[in-house]
């Protein structure tokens, strides 16, 4: 099975389009550009696969693919086989995976960094748009919408707060926010995030916000807009595949 569309059909049942926990994996499996996506399924030629690995080229790093995956349930050997079919030993990658995969991933990868990420979803009953005339809409480097505030009294009109999208699918979109250290606690982060949330809701997408559990400032910002912790987590790893013994 060589056709990307056929492989996507074969793994469709492995991901829930309505689940925030599956939203990132669904984006990279089904909606990332075809010319930047490689899918390997398990079994390889099955029309109804039990697992897959997606290798995605992104703007994060041109030389390290972003790996998302769903491994065959209750079959660790098959999961290991699939990883080594997809990657050569010594390959450096970014990995986004469910917490349950950590023991296997630690066994086959040398992990350089790893970060737990809480998934926050929007409680629409708590969201209220923020009116801030300093917020303007523009386009990010990935050609997705971006909302920014510029420092108006500086010669270079530096961007001091921005809310952009890491990715968007037909159903979900993940918000990323940056605020200059000297401009924090002034409500500007809340203003740009609220503008992005309002935009996404008007365009029929569910906003997601991911942050580390120890990042209290980021969590407070999310909660101030109306996000709440979904109870679901992901792990982001930078790792190198070990030799197979």
Can you walk through the features of this model?
- The chain is of the alpha+beta class and 245 residues long.
- It folds into two domains: 4-117 and 234-241, Aminopeptidase; 124-225, 3-Layer(aba) Sandwich (Aminopeptidase).
- It contains six helices and eleven strands.
- The protein has helices spanning 4-11, 23-31, 76-86, 102-108, 188-202, 216-225; strands at 37-42, 51-56, 66-70, 92-97, 109-122, 135-139, 145-150, 159-168, 172-179, 206-211, 227-241.
- β6 and β7 form a beta hairpin.
- The protein is elongated, with a radius of gyration of 19 Å.
- The model has no long low-confidence stretch (mean pLDDT 94).
- What is the count of helical runs? 6
- Average pLDDT: 94
* String of helices and strands: HHEEEHEHEEEEEHEHE
Question: How many domains make up the coordinates?
Answer: 2
Structural class: alpha+beta
Overall form = elongated
Q: Can you tell me the CATH class of the largest domain?
A: Alpha Beta
Low confidence ranges: none
Main β-sheet, spatial strand arrangement: 1-2-3-4-11-5-10-9-8-7-6
Radius of gyration, in angstroms, nearest whole number: 19 Å
Helix content: 10-25%
Sum up the structure in keywords.
single chain, alpha+beta, Aminopeptidase, 36% strand, elongated
What topology emerges from the helices and strands here?
Layout (H helix, E strand, L loop, with lengths): L3 H8 L11 H9 L5 E6 L8 E6 L9 E5 L5 H11 L5 E6 L4 H7 E14 L12 E5 L5 E6 L8 E10 L3 E8 L8 H15 L3 E6 L4 H10 L1 E15 L4
Parallel strand pairs: 3-4, 9-10
Antiparallel strand pairs: 1-2, 2-3, 4-11, 5-10, 5-11, 6-7, 7-8, 8-9
